Amino acid sequence: MKPLAVDPLTRxxxxxxxDVIETDGADHFPINSATTERFHDLCPxxxxxxxxxxxxxxxxxxxxxxAMVERHPLGSQAFVPLxxxxxxxxxxxxxxxxxxxxxxxxxxxxxxxxxxxPGTWHHPLIALEAVSEFLVVxxxxxxxxxEHEFGDGGWVIERLP
Amino acid sequence: MKPLAVDPLTRxxxxxxxDVIETDGADHFPINSATTERFHDLCPxxxxxxxxxxxxxxxxxxxxxxAMVERHPLGSQAFVPLxxxxxxxxxxxxxxxxxxxxxxxxxxxxxxxxxxxPGTWHHPLIALEAVSEFLVVxxxxxxxxxEHEFGDGGWVIERLP
Lengths: 161, 161
What we know:
2 copies of one chain form a homodimer.
Chain A: E1 2-3, E2 6-8, H1 11-14, E3 18-21, E4 28-31, E5 36-39, E6 50-57, E7 59-60, E8 64-66, E9 68-71, E10 77-81, E11 87-92, E12 104-108, E13 113-116, E14 121-122, E15 126-128, E16 132-139, E17 146-149, E18 155-157
């Protein structure tokens, strides 16, 4: 297994893969007689039938093997933490043949969600520290899941920033 | 202002207005090699262009006047608390003329969101205790807002359960 470094999650670093869902740096305006500030339209939602679900993830402990990734070609998939705990985002670019290239790993704060753009290779949910819940906005569509197993045992995350 | 009683939020009581978004009592199944439990498709998402936003709400303090309600005829609108704090849900049935009838008020726990069905009269976001953030899934559509001011000064919430 090859070591995979983890960087802090930022909008710029994550832009090739989708969008970071956070209030920091987002467009916002007051609504409801200024009792509420709306951080508006934080990511595209793409797909045919939008679903709202909650994922309850078991925490992973270091070292974390990254043996596979998956993608949803026909729709976006957004994850937003409901417990304000940090979590791990692992994505990979698509090579010319469509297979995933070398993955990238990001440490998200508990105030950061992400939306994977359609067709973006990513590891399934990686909660940290404790059982954690995430609101998930994705799409009910047939033929919307592809999986890829890395050869050579894949990658391993040995430490966090 | 007429006093408006507050009940705990339950799926049954809220059914005429939309759906409660919570894991308790929801269908679920393991995914991701059983590292994640998916509480699946918790509410319908109805509308033309789905938006994901974060609303940051200032807390209301008792007594809370309910002078108006609004509705979105062309799409659903879901609110899920990101800070695990209780919050207030105020809705009203539509009378035969389409105007709101007597409102109902529900105290949601910090683990409960709601989705308002299209056309459901509701009060704008009422956070409690502290500034609180909510993930909001709604729809960008023209002509999707109606507002109604109650006569006689409306209603007032004087206490919580």
